[in-house]
Amino acid sequence: MENIVSLKxxxxxxxxxERILKNISLDIKDKEFVTFLGPSGCGKTTTLRIIGGFLEPxxxxxxxxxxxxxxxxxxxxxxxxxxxxxxxxxxxxxxxxIAFGLRIKKLSDKEIVRRVGEMLELVNLRGFEKRSVNRxxxxxxxxxxxxxxxxxxxxxLLLDEPLGALDLKLRKExxxxxxxxxxxxxxxxxxxxxxxxxxxxxxDTVVVMNNGIxxxxxxxxxxxxxxxxxxxxxxxxxxxxxxxxxxxxxxVEFTGKRFKCVDKGFNPNETVDVVIRPEDVKVVPADKAKLxxxxxxVVFKGVHYEIIVDGVDHKWIIHSTKxxxxxxxIGMDFDPFDIHIMKKTEE
Amino acid sequence: MQKLKVLSLPxxxxxxxxxxxxxxxxxxxxxxxxxxxxxxxxxxxxxxxANIFIRSIWLAIIAxxxxxxxxxxxxxxxxxxxxxxxxTMLMIVMLPMWMNFLLxxxxxxxxxxxxGIINNLLELIGIGPLKLINTSGAVVLGMVYNYLxxxxxxxxxVMEKIDKSVIEAANDLGCNSFKVLFKVIVPLSLPGIVxxxxxxxxxxxxxxxxxxxxxxxxxxLIGDLIEMQFLGNAYNPHLGAAISLVLMxxxxxxxxxxxxxxxxxxxxx
Lengths: 347, 269
Known about the structure:
The complex is a heterodimer.
Chain A (H helix, E strand, L loop, with lengths): L2 E11 L5 E11 L3 E5 L6 H9 L6 E6 L2 E2 L10 E4 L11 H11 L4 H14 L15 H13 L5 E5 L7 H18 L2 E6 L2 H7 L2 E6 L2 E6 L1 H6 L4 H6 L4 E9 L2 E4 L2 E4 L9 E7 L5 E3 L6 E10 L4 E6 L4 E6 L8 E5 L6 E4 L4
Parallel strand pairs in A: 3-8, 3-9, 6-7, 7-8
Antiparallel strand pairs in A: 1-2, 1-4, 4-5, 9-10, 11-12, 11-14, 12-13, 14-20, 15-19, 16-17, 16-19, 17-18
Chain B lengths: L1 H29 L10 H6 L3 H31 L2 H12 L6 H12 L4 H8 L11 H24 L4 H9 L4 H30 L2 H7 L6 H9 L6 H23 L10
Helix pairs in contact in B: 1-12, 3-7, 3-9, 5-10, 7-9, 7-10, 8-9, 9-12, 11-12
């Protein structure tokens, strides 16, 4: 697979010296679903706007299909965007919103009717042609925005938190639908979100960003199971993150106790972040465990209970299918491969 | 609901005494003669002044068009700059309005006069003196100068509400700046255009101070004509009322036509 978009050493600096992007480099492959994931202000939308042509990087290069496109205005780029708040044209009806790009390109009426019809079919909006976009629900507006961008047959579709304003159920439906559309049309999607679950469900590749830096690039499984640092581990799902150190290979010490693990290659006694997923903490009888704590709260979450346990110097989050009585003393244990050791990040 | 009705009572009384009653009285005067008998004579007499009506409408249209052309880009730029710069710029736009209307128009009299500053300058560079004052051009200038803010403000307040991302969406879908203007900004600012035109055209068509001071005797407008019937030598309040009534009808027709251009589902300010 070829790279359709390449970003090389992008830096964005505002006049007041604030650096929004610090040296972002990234290759996006053709027909790939890539998601930029990070907290607000991490630079994900800024990166998207650079690809769309709405923002010029202070330094660094943008390549599209092998050609450098710095300075090329948005209307001359073969990408289209689905904006955060849809940005539909309030003076046009559903049909004319979708036809907008084709009319600008001066396609024949016959061609426009055909392509807009195709899109209305794709996003399930047949029968809404004449409706004013101001009288559509959020989900319908979203569909119009997607159709309006896709009708131009862009090589890359940019989506800036497109589902952010929808309720949970609708969001889940649209996630599946977007993924289907992407696979059916064989397009490259670049998707921005702060919702980790959304990123993990939809993407081929997740790019985790924080403070204008790419923290990790990988498949959803890879990002979830092998986070490279405490930030990624914490941002992708809930985690217990504890300070620890590595007295020797495959042994980690935290909360005063030593545990077996599978990581090696750290300096002797190097301080590290120890990350353990809530579902990987095993509840065992207190008298048989190295680690004990008092159950502080138990909340039913549907599939599991979320149990907060007050340990000696850490509050543990445990996901368990069995509830424990509040106030009880319980023990905790871990399998060696469930203990993830991460180098401390600078900053 | 009941409470709301009670609260609106003072305004209803006000409307009745100061708006409805005077209109009825104007109509009464227009359709009666000195003896109080009903007559159509006053209305048919208005026909003699067709040329003044045409001149007034024509000059008001020119002034409104100039205001629109000047204001549109300015309002657009205003709506796109930073918020704190916007308020400074708006204040500068409004500044002339803080000064008395008469004073502003007097100032133009001296500027445009045969021995005024402008003619002195023109003389220095060898293309003067020109006849500036007492021309229809001077009247239009006075209208534009005095009513420009009434065009800028409604345009600005509509444009300010146009979401930046809608413009970006148009760019994204293939519009250059020129196409963005005609495909998106103009249609979306239509309510502002309509109310700006209304707010300039109506006072411009009925002004009498501007034409009196800058137009001399040869550029009489409807406003002057009406004034002459009530305060001038040609004292005839019945004819004056009839002219006012015809003017009202003309404005009503023009506004009705204008409002056809404003889409229903967009809120007029």
